[in-house]
Amino acid sequence: MTEKTHRGILVFAEQKDGRIHKVTYELLNKGRTLAESLEVPVYAIALGPKNMEVEELIYRGADEVFYGEEDAFNQPDELLYKENIVALINRIKPEICLFGATTFGRSLAPRVAGSLETGLTADCTELKIDEDGKLIQIRPAFSDNILAHIKTKTYPQMATIRYKEFSEAKRDGQRQGKITKIEAILLENPAVRILKQLQSNEIDISEAEVVVAGGRGLKSSEDFHMLKELAALLGGVVGASRAVVEEDYISSDHQVGYSGNRVKPKLYIACGISGAPQHLAGMREAENIVAINTDPSAPIFNIADVGIVGDLYEVIPMLINKINNQKA
Ligand code: FAD
User: Fold this and answer.
1) Which of 68, 154, 230, 320 gives a 20 to 30 Å CA spacing to 122?
2) Which of 226, 259, 315 to mutate to test the pocket of ligand 1 (most atoms within 8 A of CB)?
3) Residue 240 has pLDDT above 60, yes or no
C-alpha cells in the first residue's frame, strides 16, 4: 500500500476578541468522527490576539492546536489569515480542511483553496468518508431539490459547513492535547485596510432563542415595527423571508433560509410566510414553530406546531396585548 501524502483533519477555529466561534466546536465534533474512521489526528488552527481560549479546542476534541498570536488577527483580513493557514497546511499536510460557513469563513476558505490549487465545496450539510477513505461532501443543490455528493480529487479536501448543522462537541476539561505556537506571518503591505467596522445587527440571529419572522404577508416595511415589538416582549429578534428582504423592507442580516441564516431557536413565529422549501431550510429545526397565515393551505402549516389561520394584522396586536396584560 502506498504511503499517504496527506494525513489528518484541520479545523479552522474562528475567533472574535479571543473567543472561539461555536461553529468551531461543531466542526471539531464532526472532525473527530471522520478522524476516528480514518484513524488520523484532528488539528485546529487558531489565529487571534493574546489570551485566546486555545485549550478549549483541546477540550472539544482537537489533538493538536496550532495558534498564532498577533493583534493584527483581530481584523477580519482574509489575505493575512490565508497566508498563515496556507503556510501551516503546507507544513502539516492535512488530508481534510474544514471551515465554518460564516461570513468570514465563506470569504476565507476559497482564498485558501485557490492558493493551494485544490477544490472547495461550500455550505456542506453532511460529511462522510467513503470506502477509499475519501471525503464525501454533501450539500443541497438546485434550490434544495437534490443533495449533491461531491468528491475532491486534490488534497487537501476542503469544505465549508453551515453553522448549526452539526451539534457541538461535548467539553471534556480533562482531555489532553498538544498546543503549538506558530510564528505568525504578517503582511508588510496589506492589500486590505479596514477603515471602519460597522455593527450590522444588534444580535446574531443564529444565536437567538426566539425569532419573530415576517414575510410577504406584511404590507410595508413600517409594519415590521409590530414584529419588533412582539420579538422584544419575548426577548427575541426579528427574522424575514427573502421576499421581503428583496423588497428592501429589512436588511439581509435578518433573512432566514437556504441563502440566509440558519436558526434553531426555542420559538419561531412565522408571520405571513408561505413556507417555501428555501425558507424552511433555515428554520425547520426550531423547537416550536408557530405560523400565522390567512391561507389554511399554506405549506408552513405542515411543519408548524401551532397554526393560526388568520390575519397577522389582527393576530399580532392581540398577542402583544395578551403578553402586556400578563406582564402588568
Ligand atoms: P410568499 O410566498 O408570497 O407568501 C406570503 C404568505 O403570506 C402567503 O402564504 C399568504 O397567504 C400570507 N399572507 C398574506 N397576507 C397575510 C396576512 N395579512 N396575514 C397573514 N398571512 C398573510 N426564501 C427565503 O425565505 N429564504 C431564503 O434563504 C431563500 N433562498 C432562496 C434561494 C433560492 C436559490 C431560491 C430560488 C429562492 C429562495 N428563497 C428564499 C425564496 C423562496 O422560494 C420564496 O419565494 C420566499 O420564501 C417566499 O417568501 P414569503 O413566504 O414571504 O412570500
Assistant:
1) 68
2) 259
3) yes
